[in-house]
């Protein structure tokens, strides 16, 4: 069954190519993000970790300890957020990350629309990453991600959340499936590099509206951004959708 079309919009603060260029000195405040929706993903100030937005709370996932709820005065240099519409849950089981991607794509309302994705359930394993906070002068995202901290968590319950974005927006955002994870006990979270869903409930909502809010700081305004090759984003955001043993 295809996703249902939701009212409202997916709101994004900044563009991915800015992070790739090392332009992430400013961002959207937590309260501004919360006003734009209750579900989404993002990254922390200075690329100092990953952000999971679930049920109206923003969780900062870093290498310094377990995920914590962020305060209104903190900011995110990049984020996608929305309020999902009413959606039908589909039972899924024994899916690796490529299998989950296929399950999502089979249920897209259109490959030209934006979709928020959420899976609640039991994971046989999930491989997450966070990055260490950077200080000025900021390095490009690819250099920061090369030093990422990876954590494998096995036999856990939690939520995979993120977006499937149309291919034509690669560079503005992350095209295809982009997921973060947060465990139910709030002990681990981060950007998903690999996973296997033992059993869960998959929900999708489609959006025809996409709102882009750009930074206004001097670094962003004075840096001309260009989109060269998709391989930079694929290298940073995934491991080629490879599977690993459970």
Describe the structure.
- There is one protein chain.
- A seven-stranded mixed beta sheet has the order 7-6-5-4-9-2-15, covered by helices on one side. Strands 1, 10, 11, 12, 13 and 14 form a six-stranded mixed beta sheet that branches.
- The protein is globular and about 45 Å long.
- It starts with a strand and ends in a 9-residue tail after the last helix.
- About 15% of the residues lie in helices and about 45% in strands.
- The chain is of the alpha+beta class and about 250 residues long.
- Mean pLDDT is about 95; it is low at about 240-245.
- A hairpin with a 2-residue loop joins strand 5 and strand 6.
- The longest helix has 10 residues, at about 95-105.
- It has helices spanning about 15-20, 30-35, 95-105, 140-145, 220, 230-235; strands spanning about 5, 10-15, 30, 40-45, 50-55, 55-60, 65-70, 75, 80, 90-95, 115-130, 150-165, 175-185, 190-205, 210-215.
């Amino acid at each position: 069954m295809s996703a249902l079309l939701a009212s409202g919009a997916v709101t994004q603060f900044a563009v991915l190519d800015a992070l790739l260029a090392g332009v992430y000195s400013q961002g959207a405040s937590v309260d501004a993000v919360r006003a734009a929706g209750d579900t989404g993903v993002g990254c922390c100030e200075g690329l100092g970790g990953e952000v999971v937005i679930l049920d109206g709370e923003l969780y900062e996932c870093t290498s310094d300890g377990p995920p914590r709820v962020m305060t209104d005065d903190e900011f995110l240099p990049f984020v996608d957020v929305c309020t999902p519409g009413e959606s039908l849950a589909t039972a899924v089981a024994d899916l690796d990350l490529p299998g989950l991607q296929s399950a999502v794509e089979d249920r897209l309302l259109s490959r030209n629309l934006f979709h928020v994705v959420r899976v609640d359930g039991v994971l046989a394993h999930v491989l997450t990453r966070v990055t260490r906070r950077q200080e000025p002068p900021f390095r490009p995202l690819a250099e920061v991600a090369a030093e990422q901290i990876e954590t494998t968590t096995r036999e856990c319950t939690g939520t995979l959340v993120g977006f499937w974005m149309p291919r034509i927006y690669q560079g503005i955002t992350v095209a295809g499936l982009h997921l973060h994870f947060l465990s139910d006990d709030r002990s681990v979270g981060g950007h998903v590099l690999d996973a296997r869903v033992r059993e869960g409930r998959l929900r999708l909502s489609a959006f025809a509206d996409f709102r882009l809010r750009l930074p206004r700081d001097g670094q962003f305004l004075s840096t001309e951004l260009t989109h060269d090759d998709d391989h930079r984003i694929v290298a940073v955001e995934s491991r080629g959708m490879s599977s690993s043993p459970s």
